Each structure stands twice: as structure tokens, then as C-alpha cells.
Amino acid sequence: MNKDDKEKGSLIRRFSKIQSGLLPEVKLENNFQMEQIQLIAGIDLAYWNINKTTYAVCCIAVIDYYTKNVVEKVYSEGEITIPYIPGFLAFRELPLMAGAAKKLRTQPDLYMFDGNGYLHDRHMGLATHASIYLNKPSIGVAKSYLKVRNVDFVMPKNIKGAYTDIIINHEVYGRALRTRKDVKPIFVSCGNWITLKTATEIVMNLVDHDSRLPIPTRFADLYTHEMRRKLKNH
């Protein structure tokens, strides 16, 4: 085993222990009333490399749940020092996420992530892990399916709003959701302090005619690409 493999193995053991310690804080129930939800923050990262060093920018787009307008946008950029290890993305991205969140003038009622939450080997995907540090309810919305415990998803009917639950060992981990007719499904899971039913309802209410993705994470994704172009050429 080479040095890199040893270091990665050490990180996996340490990160697994941290995730296991955080799991008791995860609650798949709403800690809010729907009428309290006004501002939803979409959050995403974009990466680039310069001279073998990895950098990233984290962008947050805060959306008014009712008007669908952008209320605020912030970003934080920096060097990435943690390697990519499947299942442990939060350790790589949380420092920049926390940095961006500190810049917000508004207070989002809920965070929406481009990634998984409870739909994860240890129920500790990015959306779940990050919610504990941001102290807000959260939803995971992934564009593609990361297979968990070798279980495939069942394709939902080709109808807007159709979904199939992803059930592993008799437990619902998340769902494949068809947000529009004739588009690929997205994968919705609870982050924390929310039910899957409420998460699905919020996601569906934030999908417009332009994309199968909900507005908060789509706008955050677009903003990351814009900022990456600017920062790379700075």
C-alpha cells in the first residue's frame, strides 16, 4: 500500500466515525410549518485546477419560495485540500459552504443541495451532513443516481410529479422524481429536519418550464460556472 492509499484509508476511518457520531442528530420530520418557509437557498460548487492545485467556488442563490425571484447571491472561493472520496463529499466542501453562508445578509429558511442527503450508505450525504453545521432544514436533489448498497431505482411513470421510492433493506432512502414529462428523473432525499413528502412538495413547487431541476440549485449551479470563469482568469 502506497502513502496516498494509507492517507486515504486513514481519512475514511476518521470521516466514518464522525458521520456515525452525527447520525443521531438526523430527524426525518418537519421542524417547521410550511407557512414559515419563505427563503430557500440553493448551494453548489464548481472546481478547477491550476498547477496541480485544486480550487473551488461555492455559490449560494437565495430564492423567494413564492415569487421565484432571486433575493441574494454570495460566493466563497479557496483551495481544496481534502481529496475526493465517494461518500464523504461534505468534508471536502463544507469549509467553502460555511464561508459562503457567513456572507449572507438574509436568513434562508431551508437549504437545497445539488447532491444526496439520506440517500447515502450511512444516511449522511452532503445535504444531511451540512444541515447540522448550517443549523437549517435541508433537501438533497441529485441529477443522477449514485447507487446505494447495489440497489437500483425503479423508473417512475412519464408523468409530471410521478415518483418511485428507493427502498433499501425495507427502509425508504429517497425517491426518483419526474419533475416534468419527457425528462429524466431527479433524485430527492431528505437532508434533515424534513419529511420526504414535504421535500418532494417543495421541489415540485420550484420547478419551472426551463429545466427539470428546481430553481434554487439550478441558479446556484449557473452562478458557480459564472464565478469559476471569472476567478480562473483573475
Helix-strand makeup class: alpha+beta
What's the CATH architecture?
2-Layer Sandwich
Low-confidence stretches: none
CATH class designation: Alpha Beta
Question: Count of DSSP E strands?
Answer: 8
| CATH fold category name | archaeoglobus fulgidus dsm 4304 fold
CATH fourth-tier homologous superfamily:
archaeoglobus fulgidus dsm 4304 superfamily
So how many helices?
Answer: 5
Q: Between the first and last Cα atoms, what is the distance in angstroms? A: 40 Å
* SSE pattern: HEEEHEHEEEEHH
User: How much of the sequence is in beta strands?
Assistant: 25-35%
Keywords:
eight-stranded mixed beta sheet, alpha+beta, 8 strands, 234 residues, archaeoglobus fulgidus dsm 4304 fold
Describe this structure in words.
The protein has one domain (3-232): 2-Layer Sandwich (archaeoglobus fulgidus dsm 4304 fold), CATH 3.30.2170. The model has no long low-confidence stretch (mean pLDDT 96). α2 packs parallel to α3. It has an 8-stranded mixed β-sheet with strand order 3-2-1-4-5-8-7-6, with helices on both faces. By secondary structure, the protein is an alpha+beta fold. Helices cover 30% and strands 27% of the residues.
Give a summary of the structure in a few sentences.
This protein has 234 residues and is α+β, with helices and mostly antiparallel strands. The chain has 5 helices and 8 strands.
